[in-house]
Amino acid sequence: MGAPYVLHMITPLANVSPFDVNMAVDAGIDAVVPYTGIETAQVEALTQDAMFSRDPKNAVRTGLFIGGRDAAMALDMLEVARKAMFPPFRISVFADPSGAFTTAAAMVAAVERALRRLGAEGLTGLDVQVYGATGVVGGIAGLIAAQAGGSVTLVSHRGVSAVQGKAEEFGRRYGVTLFCADTSTGGKAALMERAEVVLACGKAGVTVLTADDLRAAKRLRVVADINAVPPAGVDGVGVQDDGTSLPAQPNAVGIGALAIGNVKFKVQHHLLERMQTGGSAVAFDFQDAMDAARTIAGKGK
What we know:
This protein is α/β, with parallel strands linked by helices. Helices cover 41% and strands 19% of the residues.
């Protein structure tokens, strides 16, 4: 019998996400150990403690999960952990702050699937607008959509400065262009007139787009909403919708939170399983989540 798999879960917050703990246990991981209030400067030492404490042949039976609510911090922590390792003491690392990487990947993959059903080749060249882009899911969804070829605008409801720094940071890290807009003092109608894809990533229970907003979106093809708490984030999008025509814009289709969540759940489960069954150390970020999401969502085409 092999050594038990130990997953060390770190977060800068006061608690590790119960969602992620449950996911890890359900994926078959033997031991899950939480660490809270962790700063980036502590990650190197924690990583080396985890890898040096096991026989080299069992280092691969050790993992580090990075949570929190800050995408850039999680990516920095992932990079620190990777640089702290060397053969034969390599362990696996998986960054998914607030589930944002797997959720955003699932959202974009579900949109790509809907576009294929409509006869489109994907997001390339399409006007993609991210509402609720001030949050961690919205920012990463915008980044993934831009990497997929979309012309992406991060939309803020509390001033353009709330998304400008994020757009610049992701542009510096990944060479993408992310446009920014603010609707706190109006301007939503002009945005919606050119929207072809909408990613609604607002707070739970908050409607970010009304039926009137949608009626102005004559070019709209797909709108996806991650809000599962009533009222809907986008008026007329049901939580179980997966390509359902919108009442306010019949030429467009909606994707609801549970359809996205079904893909997200499978992506996270798949990556957690790969950590412990792959036979070699891995390092997963939002790009790996997107690769898995495309495969998983593609099975439902």
